[in-house]
Amino acid sequence: MPLTQKSSPALLLIDIQQAFDDVAYWGGERNNPDAERNAAELLAYWRANQLPVFHVQHSSTNPSSRLAPGQPGHDFKDEVRPLPDEPVIGKNVNSAFIGTDLKERLDAQHLTTLVIAGLTTDHCVSTTTRMAGNLGFDTFLVADACATFARKGVGTEVFSAELIHQTALASLNEEFATVLTTAGVIEQLAKTK
After folding, report:
1. Res. 47: pLDDT tops 90
2. What is the pTM of this model?
3. Cα–Cα–Cα angle for 122, 158, 32, rounded to 5 degrees
4. Which domains does the chain possess?
């Protein structure tokens, strides 16, 4: 399914929160330092074209988590800070669809196409993308507007952030979503104005 502006694609920006600036806390290495800049470019395009935007904010139930409400890391990063009229979907699990009214909001606006970006590729972005595909949305994942961290394997091996990012994208592409770049998304949408 091609990405068209006529389908009123909704942009889901997932967990682009200040807590993820603490690289040591999340694994010691992060890939794609341009993810937030690319997400901001998408957001600017959506705003300029009056397309629907949803900001997803993780609110950890662990009070000591950097993503817990009241912690400074809970706040959105400045690059993608929501405007007062843009909806914020609060969640406390990996999927933006579990325990939230996201699907109901999308259905109420007859939105069937989703463009997803955010943090982190292999956790909340992946889980939300999988559910979006399973729920029947035409789903597009923006590879260069996502990022993740190095992960420790089952044993002692540590897998690089870029490897984790790329394998997460590979497992989603053409199964749950179409994986594109920021430039690719904007190019496709601009052609269909």
Report:
1. yes
2. 0.97
3. 45
4. 5-191 (3.40.50.850)
